[in-house]
């Protein structure tokens, strides 16, 4: 398992914000300080949504998943100071390789909600 991919991640940006930048290139892009900041997109807050499901066939293959291993899907939307969405990042996390841990200050009015569908 040491050579298996740890996760899959894709980011999506509004085209008008990234047109003409390296973020429009078809290959993987990384930058010191983060890809958003590298093109002047300063994220002031995030919204995280985490769901758990069985993987797709492609995810099983790409992640070398053992049979019946669920994945967590972490969708993070980044917003600027005016609440304009700047980026959506979707990360697929194999259930046999991850622990998801959050530290949340009780004094900031943060709310956690659970939704059944």
What is this entry, summarized?
With 117 residues, the protein is α+β, with helices and mostly antiparallel strands. It has three helices and four strands; from the N terminus they run E-H-H-E-H-E-E.
Write up this protein.
With 117 residues, the protein is an alpha+beta fold. 13% of the residues lie in helices and 28% in strands. The chain has helices at residues 15-18, 35-38, 57-63; strands spanning 8-12, 45-53, 71-79, 85-94. The protein has a 4-stranded antiparallel β-sheet with strand order 1-4-3-2, with helices on one face. A hairpin with a 5-residue loop joins strand 3 (71-79) and strand 4 (85-94). The longest helix is centred in the middle third of the chain and has 7 residues, at 57-63. The mean pLDDT is 87.
Q: Could you give the distance between the termini?
A: 34 Å
Query: What is the number of strand segments?
Result: 4
- What is the rounded Rg? 16 Å
Strand content: 25-35%
Number of helices: 3
Major sheet: size, sense and barrel closure? Answer: 4 strands, antiparallel
Helix proportion range: 10-25%
Structural class: alpha+beta
Mean pLDDT: 87
Tertiary shape: globular
Q: What is the succession of H and E elements?
A: EHHEHEE
- What is the oligomer described by this structure? single chain
Detail the poorly predicted runs: none
Q: What strand line-up does the widest sheet have?
A: 1-4-3-2
């Amino acid at each position: 398992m040491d050579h298996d991919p740890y996760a899959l991640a894709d980011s999506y940006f509004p085209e008008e914000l990234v047109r003409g930048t390296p973020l429009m290139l078809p290959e993987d892009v990384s930058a010191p300080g983060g890809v958003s900041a590298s093109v002047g997109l300063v994220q002031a807050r995030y919204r995280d949504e985490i769901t758990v499901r069985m993987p797709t066939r492609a995810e099983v293959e790409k992640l070398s998943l053992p049979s019946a291993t669920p994945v967590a899907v972490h969708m993070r939307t980044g917003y600027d100071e005016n609440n304009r969405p700047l980026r959506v990042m979707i990360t697929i996390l194999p259930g046999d390789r991850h622990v998801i841990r959050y530290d949340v200050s009780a004094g900031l009015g943060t709310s956690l909600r659970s939704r059944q569908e």
